[in-house]
């Protein structure tokens, strides 16, 4: 599956909120509780005003299909991925991490890391297939 990444903008926040609170997404997140719209907007307003953090909507087949975030972390950037519930199981995560690596290179990022919740075999495979070493809970990739 071919994907593109585009910057998150304010109009994406409702979709991101719905994706983030969906049970299939929450079960593989480190923070599994539902969040309120107020918490969500507070987080995203802060995030969108922080130039060190990068946020991208995954677009697949012309449809918004998820989210990739890159956050600075001790000499690297931590990558977070969320695939929209209705788009899961279609290879979008694999393609999105490949696109995130390319985007990170363009931003001058030299290293990506990822933490994966134990038992999340899909995410473990996505990072391994994209050249990340380590696992099953911590992955890293020099760019």
CATH superfamily: Gcn5-related N-acetyltransferase (GNAT)
- Report strand %: 25-35%
Principal-axis shape equals globular
Summing up helix and strand content along with how strands pair, one would put the structural category as alpha+beta
Measured between the Cα atoms of the first and last residue, the distance is 22 Å
CATH topology: Aminopeptidase
The number of distinct structural domains comes to 1
Percent helix range: 25-40%
Query: Oligomerization state of this entry?
Result: single chain
CATH architecture call: 3-Layer(aba) Sandwich
- Which consecutive residue ranges, at least 5 long each, have pLDDT under 50? none
Please trace the helix and strand order, writing H or E for each element.
EHHHEEEHEHEE
Strand order of the largest sheet: 1-2-3-4-5-7-6
Radius of gyration: 14 Å
SS element count, helices: 5
Largest sheet: 7 strands, mixed
Report the average pLDDT across residues.
95
Question: Quick summary of this structure?
Answer:
This protein is an alpha+beta fold and 143 residues long. It has helices at residues 13-21, 23-26, 37-48, 92-106, 121-129, and strands at 3-7, 54-60, 63-73, 76-83, 111-115, 133-134, 138-142. The protein has one domain (3-142): Aminopeptidase (3-Layer(aba) Sandwich).
Write the layout of secondary structure elements.
Layout (H helix, E strand, L loop, with lengths): L2 E5 L5 H9 L1 H4 L10 H12 L5 E7 L2 E11 L2 E8 L8 H15 L4 E5 L5 H9 L3 E2 L3 E5 L1
Parallel strand pairs: 4-5
Antiparallel strand pairs: 1-2, 2-3, 3-4, 5-7, 6-7
